[in-house]
């Protein structure tokens, strides 16, 4: 590698990038690489790690080979470098998206000495003809970007990354620089070992992004909350991450109909559309991009002001990297994630068909996410600890737990009772059974196993089911309980739990926040961003009206309108039928059947109290007759199997049932008797109907408690859908 003589690195930095000085350890890292040493860089997103190989490549003899995992990432990096050079050929990418003519052009530029950086996918690097070509040229060094992809314990594991070392040796033994923005100590060791870089000089920057605000919210009315949040950030750039392509399309569409400039991005779209949407976001033609994790790696947009996770990520590495795309210019960066423990259970269930070793790894990664989501301590401190770094303060002042602390309590007495209950329960049973025993619920399974005769039966009835479920989750996080992988969802006491029973000691747990209380609306949504607050007086009036109508029609109140719909009415004050139809859960059918009295009540209240209605915060829903909803209704009319329909549409039964619930709660009548009669005994159907009729809310829990051992939860959800359709529509 050429020596720098009269020209200093600072002059080259100014010449190519226009910067007067280096950031952090950049200069030291560049000197290490240019002196021929293998170098390992762990630097958070926004820390400037790309420059650590870009500048050396531009001023060294030969071509630097940059191994990069994504075509979109390569394109973005190449476009960026070409902006610094006088000719486009200074940087190229070489992957499967190029035509033969384009590949020949790249090779000519390399042979002619024009190209200083060549971005390649690991798959391209392993092809024989490419290896042969690279052996014939002068290579300055190899850079392995997103090096965490090498490790099975990393969040984006790519098996082809593990073949890089022998291929590099075959091409040319030149220095290697490996770079990553997220790596736990275990992942770091795995990277160094796999790349044969045990002697490499390691440079590690702090993972603390002081400007980022971390917040975890409960996953309740999540679509509506996202729309509210985004509408309160006019003109600011943001990313909304979703796990599924279907959810990406849905959220993007809902943002659009609410007047927000947003586009979707996921791997199921054609490459041309994906590239166009990415460019629209980068060029600020739209404010928001709704995406799966396929979007964002290497995206160099410094002024992204918020990152929203519709679904909690599968690992803390993913969370850190995705949230790290906010506030890269040092300005405001807000990171809001919606968390429900049920999502973790769904992810676990998806692992059931994978090899046990892979299940174990992913299970451990997911429970780190659970621990982070449910912690009552400073989120920044928890996150940095995960990456092997200690944050000096107990309160960062810039996360939800530091701004609005959760209630903490000594769980010792409750833990002893929980573990004793587990000991008394013979066989490996699921958490809902343990909770039933503790709270004194005599369900079918409790009767079947005679667990109502245990000494511990009902000894925990001083707290509710929600409390004990939280106890079980936190006991799992503290490794006092373990969950079977092979026999999905069953609980056992771990060795650590057995030791705790012998020698109990104080252990601090957190009490779940009551997110139905005014605290969430007041402290997190409305005061912070100026949205509308729930009008408790109007809410009480609407509940009374609902009760009156329900009594007259001999129906449970929730069949008329569910609580979330009333809450939205008491926030948005709809005074016309058209406005009422924009309330979630109110379709044409419901509006026509019950809407007049509600609109009249709200209009009178608004007039008498001189209410200033929040027109700007009204959340519009996507038309109820979406293509998916229409096709579901048509499938039911033709009496098709719902499993076959879900499979053909590429959706889970869980998501299909959510669509059905949305359809019937909005007022559309459907007939699914042909399907239910195959699954559920007629006598049981009548019993379930009676339980639903007696209920004040639409909670499924009493039905699950009574019939959960005989039927799957999805089957019981179908009964609730039938009930809502038959009696409410």
What does this structure look like?
- The N and C termini lie far apart (77 Å).
- The strands form 4 sheets. The protein has a 7-stranded parallel sheet, with helices on both faces.
- Helix 15 crosses helix 21 and helix 19 packs across helix 21.
- It has 5 domains: 196 residues, P-loop containing nucleotide triphosphate hydrolases (Rossmann fold, 3-Layer(aba) Sandwich); 192 residues, P-loop containing nucleotide triphosphate hydrolases (Rossmann fold), CATH 3.40.50.300; 100 residues, Arc Repressor Mutant, subunit A (Orthogonal Bundle); 84 residues, HRDC domain (DNA polymerase, domain 1, Orthogonal Bundle); 102 residues, ATP-dependent DNA helicase RecQ (Arc Repressor Mutant, subunit A, Orthogonal Bundle).
- The longest helix has 22 residues.
- The N terminus is likely disordered.
- It is globular, with a radius of gyration of 29 Å.
- Strand 3, helix 5 and strand 4 form a beta-alpha-beta unit.
- It is built from 35 helices and 17 strands.
- It is α/β, with parallel strands linked by helices.
Summarize, please:
The chain has 729 residues and is of the alpha/beta class. The chain has 35 helices and 17 strands.
Layout: helices, strands, pairs:
Elements: H1 9-17, H2 26-34, E1 39-42, H3 51-59, E2 63-67, H4 71-82, E3 91-94, H5 100-111, E4 117-120, H6 122-125, H7 128-135, E5 139-144, H8 164-171, E6 176-180, H9 185-194, E7 201-204, E8 212-218, H10 222-231, E9 237-241, H11 245-257, E10 262-265, H12 271-282, E11 288-291, E12 304-309, H13 316-323, E13 333-339, H14 341-350, H15 356-374, H16 379-386, H17 400-403, E14 408-410, H18 412-424, H19 431-439, H20 444-448, H21 465-477, E15 481-483, E16 491-493, H22 495-502, E17 508-510, H23 518-529, H24 536-553, H25 557-560, H26 563-572, H27 577-580, H28 588-609, H29 627-637, H30 642-649, H31 653-665, H32 673-679, H33 682-694, H34 701-707, H35 713-728
Parallel strand pairs: 1-6, 1-7, 2-4, 2-5, 3-4, 5-6, 8-13, 9-11, 9-12, 10-11, 12-13
Antiparallel strand pairs: 14-17, 15-16
Helix pairs in contact: 2-3, 15-21, 19-21, 24-26, 24-28, 31-35, 33-35
């Amino acid at each position: 590698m050429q020596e720098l003589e009269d020209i200093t690195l600072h002059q080259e930095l100014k010449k190519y990038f226009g910067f007067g000085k280096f950031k952090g350890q950049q200069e030291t890292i560049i000197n290490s690489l240019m002196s021929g040493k293998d170098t390992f860089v762990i630097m958070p997103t926004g820390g400037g790690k790309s420059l650590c190989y870009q500048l050396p490549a531009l001023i060294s003899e030969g071509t630097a080979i940059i191994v990069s995992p994504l075509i979109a990432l390569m394109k973005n990096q190449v476009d960026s470098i070409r902006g610094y050079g006088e000719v486009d050929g200074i940087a190229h990418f070489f992957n499967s998206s190029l035509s033969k003519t384009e590949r020949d052009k790249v090779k000519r530029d390399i042979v002619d000495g024009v190209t200083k950086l060549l971005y390649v996918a690991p798959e391209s690097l392993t092809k024989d003809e490419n290896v042969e070509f690279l052996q014939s040229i002068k290579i300055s060094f190899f850079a392995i970007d997103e090096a965490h992809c090498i490790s099975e314990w990393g969040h984006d594991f790519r098996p082809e990354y593990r073949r890089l070392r022998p291929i590099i040796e075959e091409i040319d033994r030149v220095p290697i620089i490996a770079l990553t923005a997220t790596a736990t100590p275990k992942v770091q060791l795995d990277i160094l070992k796999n790349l044969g870089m045990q002697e490499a000089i390691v440079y590690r920057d702090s993972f603390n992004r002081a400007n980022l605000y971390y917040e975890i919210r409960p996953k309740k009315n999540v679509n509506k909350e996202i729309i509210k949040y985004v509408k309160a950030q006019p003109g600011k750039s943001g990313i909304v991450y979703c796990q599924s392509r279907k959810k990406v399309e849905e959220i993007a569409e809902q943002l659009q109909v609410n007047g927000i400039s947003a586009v979707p991005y996921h791997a199921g779209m054609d490459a041309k559309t994906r590239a166009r949407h990415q460019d629209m976001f980068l060029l600020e033609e739209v404010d928001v991009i709704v995406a799966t994790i396929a979007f964002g790696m290497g995206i160099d947009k410094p002024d992204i002001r918020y990152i929203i996770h519709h679904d909690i990520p599968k690992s803390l590495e993913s969370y850190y990297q995705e949230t790290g795309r906010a506030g890269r210019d040092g300005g405001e960066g807000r990171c809001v994630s919606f968390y429900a423990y049920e999502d973790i259970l769904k992810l676990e269930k998806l692992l059931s068909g994978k090899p046990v070793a892979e299940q174990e790894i992913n299970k451990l990664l997911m429970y780190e996410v659970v621990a982070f989501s449910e912690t009552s301590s400073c989120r920044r401190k928890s996150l940095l600890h995960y990456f092997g770094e200690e944050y000096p303060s107990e309160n960062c002042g810039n996360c939800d737990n530091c701004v609005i602390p959760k209630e903490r309590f000594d769980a010792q007495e409750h833990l002893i009772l929980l573990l004793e209950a587990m000991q008394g329960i013979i066989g490996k049973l699921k958490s809902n059974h343990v909770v039933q025993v503790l709270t004194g619920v005599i369900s079918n399974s409790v009767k079947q196993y005679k667990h109502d005769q245990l000494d511990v039966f009902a000894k925990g009835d001083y707290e509710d089911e929600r409390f004990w479920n939280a106890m079980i989750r936190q006991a799992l996080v503290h490794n006092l309980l373990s969950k079977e992988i092979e026999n999905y969802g069953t609980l056992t006491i771990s060795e650590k739990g057995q030791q705790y029973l012998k020698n109990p000691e104080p252990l601090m747990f957190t009490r779940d926040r009551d997110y139905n209380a005014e605290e969430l609306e007041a402290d997190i949504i409305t005061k912070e961003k100026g949205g509308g607050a729930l009008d408790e007086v109007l809410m009480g009036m609407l509940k009374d009206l609902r009760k009156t109508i329900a009594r007259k029609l001999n129906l449970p109140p929730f069949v008329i309108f569910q609580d979330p719909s009333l809450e939205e009415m008491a926030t948005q004050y709809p005074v016309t039928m058209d406005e009422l139809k924009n309330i979630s859960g109110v379709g044409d059918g419901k509006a026509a059947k019950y809407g007049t009295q509600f609109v009249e009540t709200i209009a009178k209240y608004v007039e008498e109290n001189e209410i200033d209605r929040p027109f700007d915060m009204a959340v519009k829903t996507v038309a109820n007759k979406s293509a998916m909803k229409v096709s579901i209704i048509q499938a039911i009319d033709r009496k098709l199997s719902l499993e076959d329909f879900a499979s053909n549409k590429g959706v889970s039964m869980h998501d299909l049932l959510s669509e059905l619930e949305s359809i019937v709660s909005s007022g559309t009548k459907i007939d699914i008797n042909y399907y239910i009669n195959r699954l559920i005994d007629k006598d049981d159907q009548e019993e379930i109907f009676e339980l639903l009729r007696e209920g004040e809310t639409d909670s499924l829990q009493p039905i699950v408690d009574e019939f959960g051992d005989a039927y799957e939860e999805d089957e019981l959800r179908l009964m609730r859908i039938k009930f809502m359709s038959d009696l409410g529509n």
